[in-house]
C-alpha cells in the first residue's frame, strides 16, 4: 500500500505544512554542512514533495532550481544495469553467459558472466583513474584491466565494487543495440520516463547544470570542481539528473512506472548471495544496492562525482521513493542528517547509510599487516608509531585501523577520533591466513604478507 503523509493529531501536518518544514530543514542543514545547493524529492505514492535550496554554481551565482541537473557519478550505474536487464528480458543476451561471448577483449576471464558485472561479483579491479582512462579506448582499457592476473577472487564468490565492470556493461549495451550508450540510455530509459537526457560534458539545452564544489575546511569557502570523467567511463558515471528525475527512475525500480517489466524490476532487487558489500549497503542485486530498515528492504544507489553527492532510495513495499542531490562533498553528511529529519517529521525511516554495529572490544590483528592491491591501487597496512595498524592507500596519509574479532575493521579519523566503518578482512579457507581486505566496498588481494 502507498504511504500516506500523516495528518492525524500525532503528526498533524498537511502536505503543504510538511513541505515548509522539510524546506526549512534542508536550508538549515545546507548552511551547517557548507553545501552551496541541494534538492530533495519525496514521493509517497499519494503525495510528492520537492524542495531545493541554494546556489548551483558559486562562480556564477546561478540559483539551484527544481530542474537543475547534478553530476550523479556512480548513481549512473543502475541505469546502465537496467539497460542490460532489458536486453536480457528481450532475449538479446543471457545474464549467465560469459561476457567474453560478446566482448573479445575480455577473453582472458572467460568465467566472468554478465550477471557478475552487474552485481560486482566478478572479481574485477575498480579500474584506473579517469585521467589515465582518458588516454585510451574502451576496448584497450578493458583488455588491460580485466585479466586473470589481476582477478581479486574467483567469479561469483565475493564482492568488489568495480567501475571497469560497468565500462564493460556499457560496451555490451553498445554491441547488442548498435547504439552508443548515451543514445541507448536516452531512448530506452530517460525519454520514456519524461526526462530530458543530460550527460557530463554534454548537458541538455535549457537545463541548468550544477557545478560540483570543493569546500575549504578552514575558510568555509566553496570553489567549483572540474569534472574529469573519461568518455569511456560514461556507463559508470556520466549522467546528470535532478532529484525529480531520480525519483521517476526510483518509481520504475519498484514497479510504479511503465518502464521496466515487473519481473525485471524484481530481479534487479533480488540479492546476490555472494555480494557482501560491507560498508556500502546490506546487500546487492544486479545493479542495485539493498538497504535493510525496520524489516523492509529498500533499493537504490549512491553516487559521487567531483564535488557532488547524490542518493536514491525506494521501498517496493510502501511505494516510498526518496531522492537527493547536493553539490559539495559535505552533502553526504547533509543527506544522512536530512534522512533523520524525514524520519522525525514523517515516520518514514529512510536508510541513508549502513548503521554502525557494536562488534565488541577491538583486538590486535598483527597478521593483517602487509600490502594489498586492487589493480593499480595499493593498500598498505603498516604499524603506526604506537604499534597499532594504519592504512594508507597509494601513499596517502595513513589512517588508524581498529580491528575486531570477526575480522571487520573501522577507520579512525585522526582529527576527531571518530570511528567510521572501514570494511573487513578475509581468510583463505585453505590456509587460514588473511589474503584479502575489503575497504569501502573495494577488495584488495594480498601481495606482500610482510
Q: Could you explain the architecture of this structure?
A:
With 450 residues, the chain is α+β, with helices and mostly antiparallel strands. Helix content is 25%, strand content 24%. The protein is built from eleven helices and 20 strands. The chain has helices spanning 15-32, 77-89, 114-119, 130-133, 138-145, 163-177, 181-190, 234-237, 243-253, 262-268, 331-346; strands at residues 37-43, 48-57, 62-63, 70-71, 212-215, 222-225, 240-241, 283-284, 289-293, 296-303, 309-314, 321-326, 370-374, 377-383, 389-393, 399-403, 408-412, 419-427, 434-439, 442-448. The strands form four sheets. Strands 3-2-1-12-11-10-9-8 form an eight-stranded antiparallel β-sheet, with helices on both faces. Strands 13-14-15-16-17-18-19-20 form an eight-stranded antiparallel β-barrel. The protein has a two-stranded antiparallel sheet with strand order 4-7. Strand 1 and strand 2 form a beta hairpin. It is globular. It starts with 14 loop residues before the first helix and ends with a strand.
